[in-house]
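User: I'm putting together a teaching handout on how multi-component assemblies are represented. Below are the sequence lines for each component of a complex, exactly as they appear in our records. Could you produce the 3D structure of the whole assembly as structure tokens, so the students can see both representations side by side? Please keep the chain order the same as the input.
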Amino acid sequence: MMTSATTLHEDHGHHGPAKGLMRWVLTTNHKDIGTLYLWFAFTMLLIGGSMALIIRLELFQPGMQLIEPEFFNQMTTMHGLVMVFGAIMPAFVGMANWLVPMMVGAPDMALPRMNNLSFWILPFAFGMLILTLFSEAGAPNFGWTFYAPLSTTYAPSSVTYFIFGVHLMGISSIMGAINIIATILNLRAPGMTLMKMPLFVWTWLITAYLLIAVMPVLAGVVTMMLMDIHFGTSFFNAAGGGDPVLFQHVFWFFGHPEVYIMILPAFGIVSQIIPTFARKPLFGYSSMVYATASIAFLSFIVWAHHMFTVGLPLATELFFMYATMLIAIPTGVKVFNWVSTMFNGSMTFETPMLFAVAFVILFTIGGFSGLMLAIAPADFQYHDTYFVVAHFHYVLVPGALFAIIAGVYYWIPKWCGRYYNETLGKWHFWLSFVGVNVTFFPMHFVGLAGMPRRIPDYALQFADFNAVASIGAFIFGLSQILFLYIVIDAIRNGKKATDEVWEGTEGLEWTLPSPAPYHSFSEPPEVK
Amino acid sequence: MAASNYYVPESSRLPIGTSIGLIGLAAGAGGMLNHSSSGGEGWALPHFVFFAGALILASVLYNWFSKVIGESRGGLYNAQMDRSYRWGMGWFIFSEVMFFAAFFGALFYVRQIAGPWLSGEGDKGISHMLWPEFVFQWPMFNNPAGADLPGPEAVIDPWHIPLLNTVLLISSSVTVTFAHHALRAMDRTRVIFWLALTVILGAVFVYFQIVEYVEAYEELGLTLDSGIYGSTFFMLTGFHGAHVTIGAFILFVIWLRIIKGHFTPEQHFGFEAAAWYWHFVDMVWIGLFFFVYIL
Amino acid sequence: MLSRTGLRLSSAITALLVSQSTYADWELNMPQGVTQVSQSIYDLHMLILWICVWIGVLVFGVMFYSMYKHRKSKGAKASKFHESLTLELLWTAIPTLILILMAIPATTTLVKMYDSSDAQIDIKITGYQWKWEYDYLGEDVRFFSNLATSKDEIYNKQDKGENYLLEVDREMVIPTGVKVRFLITSSDVIHSWWVPEFAVKKDAVPGYVNESWVNVPVGKEGIYRGQCAELCGVDHGFMPVVVRALSQENYQAWLDDQRAAKVAEAAAAMGDFSYDELMTTGAEVYAGRCAGCHGQSGEGMGTIFPALKGSAIAVGDVDAHIDVVLNGVPGTAMQAFAAQLSDVELAAVITYERNAWDNNTGDTVTPINIIDARK
Ligand code: HEA
Ligand code: HEA
Ligand code: CUA
Ligand SMILES: [Cu+2]
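Assistant: Of course. Below is the structure of the complete assembly, with chains in the same order as your input.
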């Protein structure tokens, strides 16, 4: 019904986008789809962020003030899900869509129609998920990690929609990843050998591999939940010989690589930006590639560090502790390489560079707390406290999110042909930088002092720092409205960008005019 | 025939149609399950949404594949495009492997780790205090909850239907290879013959699988509700069976296309993709035969 | 509310500025705790923390140095070096060594934590939504421990007490100087039993039993507070753990008291109870244990928690009513209260439910009825 045999004949010949709204719905163009992903991700950031703000309002002081515990649980769950699957991941896919074809010298993505499909599944899936908030049973309330049996036997009925929503997101991610891999492996311009690819492309190649390896496992685990809930199986029920902890093993087999899915492309972006503004080639290109690959490999054998307190046998704990600690080594290599790239450079600090530098510092702080969590005996004290919340927000917000923001500032002149307003950009940076630290640094303290996570109300000794964190959250949240303004302002009124955009940039994307033409490279460029 | 530039399709209604079909399927299925679980009324809407979604999906996919076939036969694809499809199919199969890996992982976990713990062995053997009657064995005829959650009375004997099915599937992998050789040798009658045989073998496999399920449910008390043995058994064999069905259907479509004269000895990736898929399904079955039925 | 918010806001800011707080125990760091294990964990924590801090100082130091020195505005010219095998090997090797150094104490501590042999006392801890049950194995002592903070405190209608959210109606009691083993499990979803001062945190997984242990040194008698540390549903935040450590003599005395009280209670149940007595006790029990789900005046909550006011069961057959309360409704939040409440309390709360809020059935359910129903 949607189409007919005539589509075979339609549209051949004319180039450039169709007009009106339908351009965005029907597009097969990697740039259009990239744009769609990015705007979708930003919308999700605002929605997920608003949920975070509700959480922070309730936690501003002890006692229940605004919302009920039940709704609070729905907010934490939806906040986590929306941010992880709706904001960060799609934003990176959007970046990949825009940049990978331009960076490898391809005309478009390898499978353009499937590319559109990957995107358009998402708004529907998230629409369904978010609508459950308005249903009678309420939205999912079992945390973004949805541990069984809280998410099976004891779950609200919206869990069924949640499960199907996860299936859809999985399908979308897998197709997106397949597309990216095929593009990178098959559509590189002549001469663009693997070891000449920009690091962003490398990190995405490895990320895509991780996605294809673990999204099906997530699909598997939600399918087992579905069966337990509706068809009487006993996967997570000891009475029938199953084990609730089995859920956690399968979930974290997905979940841990998932967190690297959210950071590897960020590494890639930062590795593009720092050399540009240090005016110096990236230090240790090949060790960057090997480090990324090692992180990806290790990410498959560390999952049980999320489960140190579930009662694993001693030998298992030790194995996962050692394996987890190893990740610090390749990650350290990356950090040292970035610092060495800056060393003896000739640096300027435009907004993308500011965000990239902040990324290096704050991500490393998040990495340090990660390493502390990896020490199993100590994790018995840290686990499920705000120390963990502090850890992962440091790697996710000033980590993944800052890298995305840095990337947007860095490439927006290429995308739109116009510069953003540098003064406002700096304002955005400093507000975000201060806001993020005021929000998340105190969480280390309350966590160590013993405040559990996922609670709507807390004992009195945690009050001060929670108030501070809430204030920080509003500073940080509101400064993202400024970001929105800056982007719109750049698109509308920005100063015309040169093709090179930044002084001395290297890479195929900068050889294209600004804004980049609708079809990137119809003729593959020659790479020396 | 090969186009010199990489073919970039113009904008298309197919993907959005697919998305709409998928969300209809998902939302409808969600509604149907929730209603049947709560036994409430208002089932009409979810059913409508589900079937509308399924219909949309089926028709859009039909068009999509027709279109791709048309483009391919129209000579729009060059060797590079062909490679894109190969990478795509290869990685798709890898994702399927990982999907099955989740269920195999669950099977190994309950057999090697959780089961022994529940019956008092190993590091968490102390859990036995909650289920003092429970003795772990595999197949698991008694569940920890005992009489409240009865286990199966018997399980499928691997040396009857499953063995037969193994033979069927392995031969079908051979026949599809014969078909491939024939296709490369441009021997259309033999292609048609071997491929038809493959599809028939697949269909017979599915038929026996159904017979086996009926026996399990009606005679052996082996069901989805009979504890973890039934859970892992039906999930693994069920998803596998679904894949065989899909694979056989795809091969059937390929067969029709061959009859219509599609494919050349040089360019027949549609055929190869279907064959890859079929081999994958076959490999999964061998894993199943060992780990689910025999061991 | 707004002015209070303002007040808190300014006090929080003041607190930040003068680095002093109005709250006595303003903690920034992990507690050292009272046991050997908690102390070694604390030491481990500080060790890694300082290692990370120093690595950070070093790395960020170099970075800030070059950000300051090698700026274009200062006329810095970029050099072109972009690799150095020596350096790269060095900064792979050094972190590896540091990590090995960390792993050694971590391993020994973990091994110690996992050694629960030679315990003299076994306590089975069972998590319920949202309370803990403590069963002193072999001692015939068993009871539930519920949050004691009132709804009025939580909803800001009353000032919050010192141990807001960290207080329970009956504490777990353990002796000092003895290795006590905990056998932790759950009856519904996963909970986690956590007392920071003991550095004991172990998940309570339904259907499985986890082990942990504590040995509180003599001289460290006192009250130790913690919370459930695994999301377990609506009232996850309202599920504290409180442990009172007593000297061994006092612990024995406490055990004896518990047994005596149980005998006395059983005897009392056989006695006579007036309707009024039952209604008074019933109202208390109801407010403490049932109102959370069924509402202060039996009006229920949302669609999941039924109203008891005028409910078919509460005004219908007495035996059915007793059965629901004793045995719960499997698969719903309505638990079996048979083990959680005494005969008297059960009789009282059922009597109360059958007569309060215009239910007026006039029935009196006596403890004897309950004892009969238990058979
Ligand atoms: C982008 C996401 C991201 C990233 C990159 C990381 C990175 C790491 N994480 Fe994190 N983590 C999360 C997201 C992420 N994490 C999330 C979301 C959760 C919570 C999930 C939930 O429960 O909801 C979590 C939870 C989590 C836990 C479980 C805590 C608990 O629940 O009890 C653990 C435990 O080991 C852990 C460890 C680590 C480690 C060791 C790293 C390492 O990769 C860090 C490596 C980096 C460095 C170490 C810094 C740089 C290195 C150097 C400068 C070299 C020299 C350093 C040394 C030798 C020390 N993480
Ligand atoms: C993936 C990325 C990600 C990001 C970017 C964030 C961003 C933020 N998160 Fe986090 N968070 C998670 C992932 C993330 N989070 C995860 C995975 C969990 C665990 C969930 C679980 O336990 O299951 C979690 C949990 C979590 C908690 C713990 C909840 C609990 O345990 O009870 C808290 C508490 O403070 C919190 C706060 C915040 C804040 C203040 C931000 C801020 O950075 C947000 C900034 C705000 C904005 C960007 C919004 C701006 C919008 C407006 C100003 C309004 C305008 C609105 C419209 C126009 C619609 N988050
Ligand atoms: Cu019990 Cu959280
Ligand atoms: Cu992890």
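A couple of points students might notice: The two ends of chain C are 53 Å apart (CA to CA). Chain C touches chain B through seven residues (CB under 8 Å).
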